Every structure is written in C-alpha cells, then in structure tokens.
Amino acid sequence: MPRPEKQLTPDASPRDWFGHEVRYWRKRRGHSASSLGPLVQASPSLIEKVEKGQASCRRDLAERLDEVLGTGGVLTRAWGMVYGEAEKRRRETEKNAGPAMEGTVQVHQGRILGGETSSPLGSTEPVDRRAFLANSSLAAIASIDLAALVAPTTPHEPPTRIRPKDITAVLNVAEDIYRRDNAHGGGGIVGVLASRAMEWAVRLLTVPCPEQLRAPLYTAVARLGVVVGASHFDAYAHDDARIAFKIAADCAEEANDWHLRAKVFSFLARQAIWIGDPDTGLTYAEKGLVRADRLTPTIQAMLHTARARAFGKMGDIGGAMSAVGAADDAFARSNPQDDPPWMAYYNGAQHHGDTAHALYDLVLLKDQDPGQASRRFEIAIEGHDDAYARSRAISGTKLASLLMAKGDPHQATTIGHQALTDAGHLTSRRAADDLKELNRFAARHRRIPEVAYLRERIGATLQA
User: Fold this and answer.
1) What is this structure's pTM?
2) Rounded distance, CA 146 to CA 272, Å?
C-alpha cells in the first residue's frame, strides 16, 4: 500500500508555494512522481523534494515541467520570482542592512494584542515580505506587459527611502482597485492589477522609512492588502486572498490600527463561510470583535453581520437572529463621521444585504419565513448604485433564488432578469455561483415559459 503524500503548506515560503504548484499540476495530469520524473529528465526523488520545498528547482526543469504538464508556462514565470529575483533581493538587502532583521514585519509587545501573534492563519512567525512576492497570484499573471499596465499608478522600482508621496501612491492604488473590483468583480485584469500592486507595496516595506512615516506606511499597505485580498476572494484565488489578508493583519497591528484589523478579520470570516467553514468564520468574526469598545458602531455592525452569516450557514436560528439583532442595534448607532473613510461603503444597502444573507440560509436550511430576508434584499437592491454593481447583482440573484424556492416564480423571474443585467458585466466567481444556484431553483419551474427563458439567459451569461 503506497504511503500517503506529505501534506503541503503552500503559504509557508516561496519554495513551498512553488512545490505545491508542481504537485497540483502533476496530480491534475494524472502522474506520480515516478512516472513524471523520466518525462522531465529528473529523478522521482528530486520531484518529491521540490514539491516539499526541500530542494531547489532549476529553471530548465521548470520549463520541462511546464511543457510536459501543460501548465501554460506558470512554473517558468514563477521560477524567477521564487528562485531568482527573490534570492537576488534577499542577498542585496542583507548586504546593505547588515545583521538587522530586514525583510520581516516585526510584531512588538504592546501593539494591539501585545504578545499575541497577529497572523490570522495562526502562524507564530513574522511575515516574510519577500515570500509574498512569490505567493501573490503568480498563476493569474498572463504573458502580457503587466508593468506597462500598472505603470501609470505604480513605479517599476521602489524608492531608496520612503516619502509621503509613496504612501499616498499606495492609498491611491488601493482606492483605484477597490472601485474596479466593486464595479466589475475581482477576476480578469482587475485581479492582475491587484497582484502587481500588492507586490510593489510589499517591496516598499523593505525600504528605509523615517520613524514618523512608519505607521502611515503600514496603514496604507494594510488597506491595500484588504482590497487585494477581497478582490482575490471574489475571483476564488483563496490562497492568494489569505496571504494578502495575512499581510494586511500584520501591517494593521504594526500600525496599531484597530479598525483595519477588524476589517481583515471580517473578510477572513466571510471567506471561510463562503468556502464552507462557518465555524472558522465565526471564530474570525469573534476575533475581530476583541476590544469592541475601540471600534465604531458601524464596524461592530459589520462584524456582527459576519457572525450572523456564520450562524445562518450552521442552521443555528437562535444564534443567527441574535447576531442580526446585535448588528441592527450597532448600525442604529452609526455615525459616518466617526468611521474611517474606507467604511463609507457600509451604508443601509450594505447592512441590509449582509444581514439578508444570514436570514436567506435560515429560510433554506430551517424553513423559516422568507419575508424578512426578502425585504432586506429589496432594500439592498434599491440602495446600491452602479458603483456597487456586484453587490446589487448578488442581492438581486439571492432574492430571485429565494422567491423561486419559496415564493412566486413569476416575480422571481423579473428580479432574476434585473440581476442578470448587472451580473453580465462582472468577472466575479461569487456572482457566477449565485447564478448557478438560481438556475437550479428555476429548474423546478422550467415549464413556465418566462422561467425557461431566464434559464437560457443564465446559461448564456455563464458561458460568455
């Protein structure tokens, strides 16, 4: 009986990420290490060691792996960042910096949670900034001139010393990606821009920085990490999203920014819930609420909606309803003037849409009355403008699904067509999955002509 393969940890280091990619493509193509080795002129033991991050991969081997496994060149493109560029920069930094711990985000005692690790992934190690360069969405980088795409907003090389305008540039890029992501989704060119921008920003953390600019720099990179992580989450690049969130959490703690820390844990909660782990999602939401007295009511509401969605996915009626009530109470105390500017999105539409998602799960899992969820989705749809087309599309799709499952299929069809108009312009895996769910519910009424046409439109939209 063959021994089970060692579980890999792709976020541990650049080499581990690269090895995980090799194993992914090997298994996807149906090869064992023994069958692959001769095809790429390497011993099976070397293949295994590369996968485990125990041995370096030569560039020519990466090229042969790409060719044999049909990866589209991802390993060759990644090689320079994992084994070439990263190593070169490490040596240069160490030469210039001497024995100092350059290249790590230090978590000092007395910052936010004192001696606790800031890593949302549970690691007790400081973040290796250079590791991010190799881990950030390499598989999404196509053979196009990405530097030219990002050049208008990000420089090719970091400065020799951090200046205020560098911090402003990070914040401007974050805002630009945020707008693109909400209007168009996190896939396609938005995801590419997000990856490139994050690589550039993390490189800034290795640059000498005046003490008075340290906190603003970490805050800016944390903000960008939240935006990039959210974009990758929307595109289902979940490993990349978690890495971006990890960077953001460490930077937020370094900057002593409780609000950004809470935002990171809110997204980690939503990501875990979305991929089917609501218990972990609930834990993240609770971590975000640590020292809630330091958070604005709006941010508290945001985290309580995450708790509600976790309880909803678990079918816990009491927990979900209590969390929705806590979210409503907190939101009723909101004062936008007290919130950081990036919380401006969390208005009545966002709040009602988020809480409606929790109630939606209770309707489907526990046969609860759909009325309250429906009303909240309606408020969300009405309140989201074109700048938040994705949120409007997702709320519309969910409401249509709710009515297809528990209400009037004719009304559901009308709402479904409106949602499709928004969703058709998106590159969002989340929106696509919601459309597939609507299609499944609509199949129950396939003999109704209007519903049949809606299903045809859904099929065409998903194939476009």
Assistant:
1) 0.69
2) 30
